[in-house]
Write a structure and sequence with these properties.
Length: 264
């Protein structure tokens, strides 16, 4: 899979109170800043912290960035600067050297690519990163703590609450009469939820077959009827949509089918 994230920086006065942020979604982002720095430093720091936060994940990384300076520094110029002892073609020292050296170390062995996006035109990920970077800069300007964000929550972290919930069901901690799942199937299903892009209720018949809830039918004399007749529902989701579905179910402490059933 590919992790898609936006990285952005902000400086009030440039230089001045500054912030940085990277953003994957509302559950995975981070931000920080300084009392005095430049916009370019904020942009570089955002990229650096994104690589650090995802260092333990063996996925490709797509970095959305509105700074040509950062993209060119990492993908075009840095190799030559390094070969020249971190000096530019005119012999002058490279600016923001410490951050560039740290990025050079952080990208070793990583599979990544950068994509330029125009800033302040409504791109959702870029806008989210910009909002958080500016918020950090404003916090430092006012002498207040800057929101740091939850950090990166990978597939394993997202799946953990699902694993716990299903493990509890498998040992009889669910509602009376619920058969639960064997422990090995709990882990197997949770892992599948973290990676598959196709989700089908038909494939989860063993999980939901015994969970037949009754509800009031206002359209007939029979006030109650059973939902024991299952219907197949198949959803085709993008990787981003699937990740959000998994996260929303996990944050509520329910399984994916329970979350979707509640939405319906």
């Amino acid at each position: 899979m590919t992790i898609t994230a936006a990285a952005d920086g902000s400086a009030l006065g440039n230089p001045g109170p500054a912030g940085w942020a990277w953003y994957v979604d509302d559950y995975s982002w981070a931000a920080g800043g300084w009392k005095h720095a430049t916009n370019n430093q904020g942009e570089l720091k955002a990229v650096l912290e994104l690589f650090r936060a995802t260092a333990h994940i063996d996925d490709d990384l797509l970095v959305l960035c509105d700074s040509q300076y950062v993209i060119n520094s990492v993908t075009k110029w840095m190799k030559g600067w390094k070969a020249k002892g971190w000096r530019k073609g005119d012999g002058k020292p490279v600016m923001n050297l410490d951050l560039l050296k740290e990025i050079d170390e952080a990208i070793i062995g990583r599979r990544y690519r950068f994509e330029w996006v125009k800033g302040h035109v409504g791109h959702p990920l870029n806008e989210a990163a910009d909002e958080r970077a500016r918020g950090a800069a404003e916090a430092f300007q006012r002498g207040r703590p800057a929101p740091a964000g939850p950090g990166f929550r990978g597939a394993a972290a997202v799946a953990e609450p699902v694993v716990r919930a299903r493990a509890a069901a498998s040992v009889g901690q669910s509602s009376p009469g619920s058969p639960g799942l064997p422990a090995d199937r709990v882990t197997e299903r949770a892992a599948a939820y973290s990676h598959d892009e196709l989700f089908s209720f038909d494939d989860l018949g063993d999980d939901i077959g015994e969970d037949h809830r009754e509800f009031t039918d206002p359209h007939g004399p029979d006030a109650m009827r059973s939902t024991s007749e299952l219907h197949r529902v198949t959803l085709s989701l993008s990787a981003e949509e699937h990740r959000r579905l998994v996260q929303r179910a996990a944050t509520r402490g329910v399984t994916i089918e329970e979350y979707l059933r509640g939405q319906i």
